[in-house]
Design brief:
The chain is mostly beta strands. Helix content is 6%, strand content 36%. It has one helix and six strands; from the N terminus they run E-E-E-E-E-H-E. It has a six-stranded antiparallel barrel. Strand 1 and strand 2 form a beta hairpin. The longest helix is centred in the middle third of the chain and has 6 residues.
Amino acid sequence: MFTGIVEEQGIITSISPNGLIIEASRVLEDSEIKDSIAIDGICLTVTDSGPGWFRVDTIAETIRRTRLSQLTVGSPVNLERSLLATARIGGSHRLRRSSIPLFAT
């Protein structure tokens, strides 16, 4: 789950048909492989990382249906780590979109 509060702005350093490499610092402080990071609001999984960078895998459908198709090397992207169960929750909560009504009428 994400709050929608951007933690930092990263930079796209590499784009391939099956992934992105992003330069970042703050979101990497306690992130591990398999953690989720929202990139411009798109939840993706960290598949590799090193000092000052991380990689996420992508598939054609995700690229086609999101802003990822507009990115180029050097593009800035908003980054946010997923919430910890013990973290303070602020902002507007984003779990996922649903077509189920929340209130009966």
